[in-house]
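Weekly structure sync, notes
Attendees: PL (lead), two postdocs, one rotation student
Agenda item 3: pending single-chain targets
PL asked that the sequence for the first pending target be pasted directly into the notes so everyone works from the same version. It is reproduced below exactly as submitted, 283 residues in total.
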Amino acid sequence: MIADLPPTELVKEITKEDQRKMVIDHFDLLYILLTESKVVPNATFEIVDGIKRGLSGIHFPLHNGLLGCPKKSRYDQCIDAQMNYFKKEEVPFVWYVDETEDPEFKKKLLDRGFIDLGVFQGLLGILDKSIPKADVPKSITLELVKDKTEMDEFMNVIDKVFDYGEENKIHFKKVMWESSQIPNGRAHHWVARKDGKVVSTLTTVVEGDIVSFWNGATLPEYRRQGLSTQLRRYALHDAITAGCHFGATYLQTGGMAYGICKKLGYQVKWNFHAFVAPSSEKS
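Predicted structure, written out during the meeting:
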């Protein structure tokens, strides 16, 4: 989920608040993509009670989400309504809350049994056409996923790393494949092969002049060999060619990817918490 490039001088002058808005608005694309394929007939991305809501229908917490905080007078009613909504749909969900929002609302979520996964951060970097191209040994090839057979290989790595389960794997594969087949599609999927075997994956999501990275996964036995970094550089050159000037990433603090991103010059523009709803098991 990181963009491996050193930011240079600003492509254009934008305020700090505009940069923050760019990162927040781009995050919506995750849920827009997850709902467009209609895994369930009523999959949708909408605004309810002043907050954004995405229902994909996939039984995986991070694939159904709420973003925002309702009016103070509606804290309890809104929480009850959303818990009932997702319970009826029989899917788990996550509630993203800006770090600056009222602590009382966050406490109410915790009192209802939500689990705070901690602080996440949205970072923004400036793309640079002089970024080094991928440099890999002859045993490694970097490729864009072009057909369903390659999509199966892509998803096998994702499943092994994130443990989706067979049903979720099928649904997520449908979403990822269809998102890449839209004319001038926003999503592009990439793989690194070692001796012909897919061992690392990445998805780029493009809108306007912003590209973000998702589905970064490498099989355990192939980690710390630089594959993920090289795959990101490879994908970045495609994004730059498509006219992207900014790279966004969304990470939990403290992880290796976060440290790498900071060293590359990315700056934090948005802090938020992820609260996973209770009773996430399917009834």
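Discussion points:
- The first strand starts at residue 44 and ends at 48.
- Helices lie at 16-36, 75-89, 103-111, 148-162, 166-181, 227-241, 256-263.
Action: rotation student to compare against the earlier draft before next sync.
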